[in-house]
Specification:
The structure holds two protein chains of two kinds. By secondary structure, chain A is an alpha+beta fold. Chain A has three helices and twelve strands; from the N terminus they run H-H-H-E-E-E-E-E-E-E-E-E-E-E-E. Chain B has one domain. In chain B, helix 2 packs across helix 6. Classes of the chains: A alpha+beta, B mainly alpha. At the A-B interface, helix 1 and helix 2 of A face helix 1, helix 3, helix 4 and helix 5 of B.
Chain lengths: ~300, ~160
Amino acid sequence: MLPRRIILLIICTLLLFLGIYTWNQRTGQWDRLCAAVGLEFTGGIMRGLDGLEDSLSGVWNSYVDLRDVRRENDELKERLRVLEQRLAGTREESAELIRLRRLMHLEYPASWPARASRVLAWRMGPNAALSTIMLSSGYMSGAAPGTPVTSWEGVVGRVLKAGPSTSVALLLTDTGSRVAVLTSEGRVQGILSGGGPGLPLELRFVRQNAPVRVGELLVTSGLDSCYPKGIPVARVTAISTGGASRSGASVLEIQAEPLVDFHRLEEVFLLQRPLDSITPETDVVYTRRTPVLEKPEEPAPDAGGSR
Amino acid sequence: MSWASAGWWLCYAFAAIALQALMPGLDFLLPGFILALQERNFPQLLAVGAVFVLLQEGMGSMAFGGTLLWYALAAIIFHVGCGLLQGTGFLFVTLFGILLSCVHYFIFATLATLQDIPWNSSLLFDECLFQALFTPWVWWVASALRRKVIHEDRNRQR
């Protein structure tokens, strides 16, 4: 009698789970609830721990670790002088660039205001299947799902899910990450996809005779409507021939390394989409079933060619 | 549930989340759930289970469901295990932890495959191994602290 009851209980549990799981896959209600409650609570705790760590290190830096301050001050002053000289030179170059752009009738990319956010934690818990970071900004402070995340070094990733004041961002290195890029010198377009933690990124869909060289910088092309154009993403580390795309066309196999050192990431920028820019697909953030960047949907013949 | 008990659970959740931030992939709320199962206080078990599931699903990056199924199966396995062994001993919790780690491996692998997320089997194996190693010790510390808090609270009430 007892085993039969237990088997029945297990079957009922599995059926109930399948029901909840399927309903959530269709509506996303449970995911939203968990982001609003669970993620928010975790974010609050991590913020508290972060504050505690900051105050402890502040005490250390303010009262204990003052030995090298004078030397460091002199070094910084010297560095500031050098940077000011460089800035003066750059100002001239920038002015020249503006003049040249005007001459060529090029449009400026719309400005994407940046909001700073702190990294609270890395992947946490038993359900952390993706390479993610937890940020101290939520949808109330500009971290809606799909928001580009960058650092001063380059692209970090994009926001995957968000609570009111805490969010989780998918890193560039995750296997589900896709960024439309172009090479800085040859202006060759491709899709940069993550290879997994500790593995190189992969630049896809680059034709065999494309002018790409090792060491070249990859920057966002802006064609995916997710990132503004021109943000550095990665550097090419290896190129080999002999690859083939799904359609059978010959392509280069290109590996790249991210410019951002993810292990030392403390603060990031959340780039706010300008109001007049094109809004990406709603499921562009993370989806494997319908990878928007790899397979753009063909417009229906009767749709008149516009959405 | 008394205020002391509720405060204890809150502190436990704080500590477990801090530990989870240090050791990615591990569930430090699970030993607390085992503790709630052992106390056989149904409203408390429901509240603690629901909060822990919400927390784990909130901080995770998979679609909702994995922790819910894992904790539900943990409750069933605990119910079955209590018919075979004394459900409060260290040996029981050690065996229970090993079994739950195996269950977690299969749930994670199934859900990751369902959601088309590539998963690293050796990394998952290592995480499950560490989960099995840590669960009884975390439970042991937590149960000792809880006994102390509840005992002091009862003495104060008298």
